[in-house]
Write a structure and sequence with these properties.
The chain contains eight helices and no strands. The chain is mostly helical.
Amino acid sequence: MKNRITSILFCIFLVLFMLTFCIGLPIYCRFLYYIQIKTLNLESATGWSYDTIKTAYDEVLNYLTLPGMPFGTGKLKYSESGAAHFADCKVLFDLNLGLMLSSAAVLVVIIILNALKITEPVTFAGRKPYFWSAIIAVSIPVVLGIIVAIDFDSAFTVFHSIFFPGKDNWIFNPHTDEIIKVMPQRFFMNCAIVIGAGLIAFSSALIAADLIISLKNTSKRR
């Protein structure tokens, strides 16, 4: 039985999964940061060793991604205000993980229903639901990329104003919160690039799959 509502839900939750999955790439793929310790010349810029920088980053990420971990920055100094900001970040990290897992669960349920022929996906303008999910998802990095390219500093400020309303503890003093010295603005820009590249790659694969399947079906009908 064809079900338009199920197909629409599949589109929505696929976009949500793609977005949260790609946001998770720079979070859970720590090697992407380790590489940047060298490429951003953080050792020479800070005077700290590779191990000191890596340990500080790992302690912060352990706190943000693992349950029950205390906050710490290795040998680097931090303030109560800085620790409070990372506590706010942890809420967002947990939310992203929760949305990724829950959206994945919904997608699995819908795929099982389709496999059992309980429901059947509906095409929109001759395209499968995942094609439109990919179109929506790929437009996100394109639009945000244009905004960031115009003025990254302003975009960075607006981002924090949206996700940390009424707070300014995200503006770190490098003398009291030394972690900011090893997490420069260029690092966050690179994280945004990884997220955008992930969305573009994910979306491109889905669009290509739909086009290939469509061409094969057209050839069979001839």
